[in-house]
Amino acid sequence: MKRIFLFVLTNLAVIAMLTLVARLTGLDGWLARHGSSLATLLVLALAFGFGGSLISLAMSRWMAIRAMGVQLIEQPDSARERWLVETVRSLAHRAGVGMPAVGVFESAQPNAFATGARRDRALVAVSSGLLQVMQGPEVEAVLGHELTHVANGDMVTLALIQGVVNTFVIFVSWLVGNVVDRTMMRDNTGRGLGYLAAVWVTQIVLGLLASILVMWFSRRREFRADAGGARLAGRERMIAALERLELAQEQPLPAHMDAFGIHGRYAAGWTRLFMSHPPLAARIAALRAAPAAA
Questions:
Q1: Which of 75, 180, 227, 240 has its CA at a distance of 20 to 30 angstroms from the CA of residue 13?
Q2: pLDDT tens across 125-142, in order?
Q3: pTM
Q4: CA 28, 32, 38, 40 torsion: positive or negative?
């Protein structure tokens, strides 16, 4: 499976790191000697689970800029950059959010993304290919889509969902680890190698299964963002922008940034459960079926 999303991957990495820290510092051994009560495990699972999610959220803007090579527009020095900044400013005002940072990243393929932990300190970036392929009204619709993500607080909601999922994964994996550990010989720290192996394997398996829930939410938010883009820029403009993406060669953002873009990779069969975005055809159909704005 090629689709590994940045947010989910970061959370799994943080969880694995915290588990290793607990092992190296002897925290898991201390818990073993003091009974490892379910209440204690649950409190620690909550701390570790939401810790990983909130770290990912706090780092999301910084990671996006570094990963995509985004060039922030601080002082527009061309007509295109001035138009882009002013369009974002106008849409942000209408969406009821603070002016986000605006940037451009080099990519021949049309795409855009929004990220950030706060509604008033977000980042909206578009690809150079999007500015070349799309006309002004279509770019405006794409920006409206991204600003709707910001206005809806999708990144925060995703972080909270991921935190709950992380807590479940960590709590169950620790329980499984304890069961396995009690059937094997322990070392002098109070935990055997079987415990660590069981915890990591369980976290990987449950983490992948839990990501199905996270990706379901991601797909639902795309429909809402399309509707928001239609409200801000006009339904026909939003439909035209999605049709333009559908005609473009299917090369979306790199896999580690896929979930943040306006369109994602195509998947068939059961792998659709791991898609961050619905098919473009389904999104266009949903916009056409929606009642016209009053």
A1: 180
A2: 999 999 999 999 999 999
A3: 0.76
A4: negative
The two three-digit tokens of residue 39, written as one number = 């209440």
Q: Which two tokens stand for residue 228?
A: 């928001």
The two tokens of residue 64 are 């996006």
Element holding 116 (H helix, E strand): none
> What gap in Å lies between CA 57 and CA 54, rounded to an integer?
5
Boundaries of every domain in the chain = 1-294
How far, in Å, CA of 89 to CA of 238, rounded?
18
pLDDT for the residue numbered 1: 29
Q: What is the mean pLDDT of residues 190-195?
A: 66
pLDDT confidence of residue 210: 83
Distance between the two ends of the chain, CA-based, in angstroms? 44
CA distance 263 to 245: 8
269 phi-psi bin (left φ>0, alpha ψ -120 to 50, beta other): left
Q: Is the pLDDT at 188 greater than 80, yes or no? A: no
Catalytically annotated residues: 146
